């Protein structure tokens, strides 16, 4: 079943040490690519030089609530589908989506 992706304004979580390491590795690979190939392609948004240490939590919106029970007055729906495989996905929404 497909659900819309919803974000609760101000709700963030801290990245794990593994996620931070993955982000650093990605940035290093991108810097290497840029030095060999020139400017960053159009549409790629980079925030130099830091890496975000917190991210918004993604919820699955279903009718008037999220799958984990947050009422619609507390979240904003975005024109994208909730991806339960996303590392940013709410764990309760992920489990409910899989059920």
What does it look like?
With 99 residues, this protein is α+β, with helices and mostly antiparallel strands. It has one domain (4-41, 49-98). The protein is 29% helix and 28% strand. It has two helices and four strands; from the N terminus they run βαβββα. Strands 3-2-1-4 form a four-stranded antiparallel beta sheet. Strand 2 and strand 3 form a beta hairpin. The protein is elongated. The mean pLDDT is 87.
Strand content of the residues, in percent?
A: 25-35%
Number of helices in the DSSP assignment: 2
Distance between the termini: 10 Å
Spell the H/E element sequence: EHEEEH
Total tally of structural domains: 1
Rg estimate, integer Å: 16 Å
Give the CA-based shape. elongated
Widest sheet, order of strands:
3-2-1-4
Q: Please give the share of residues in helix.
A: 25-40%
- Structural class estimated from helices and strands: alpha+beta
Tally of strands: 4
Arithmetic mean pLDDT: 87
Spans where pLDDT lies below 50 across 5 or more residues = none
Largest sheet composition: 4 strands, antiparallel
What distinguishing features does this structure have?
about 100 residues, alpha+beta
Short description:
The chain has 99 residues and is α+β, with helices and mostly antiparallel strands. The protein is built from 2 helices and 4 strands. It has one domain (4-41, 49-98).
List the helices and strands and how they pair.
Blueprint: E1 4-14, H1 17-37, E2 54-62, E3 65-66, E4 76-81, H2 91-98
Antiparallel strand pairs: 1-2, 1-4, 2-3
């Amino acid at each position: 079943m497909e659900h819309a992706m919803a974000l609760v304004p101000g709700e963030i979580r801290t990245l794990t040490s593994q996620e931070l390491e993955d982000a650093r590795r990605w940035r290093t690979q991108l810097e290497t690519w840029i030095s060999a190939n020139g400017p960053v392609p159009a549409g790629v948004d980079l925030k130099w030089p830091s890496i975000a240490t917190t991210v918004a939590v993604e919820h699955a919106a279903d009718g008037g609530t999220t799958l984990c029970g947050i009422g619609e007055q507390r979240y904003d729906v975005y024109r994208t589908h909730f991806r339960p495989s996303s590392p940013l996905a709410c764990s309760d929404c992920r489990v409910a989506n899989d059920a």
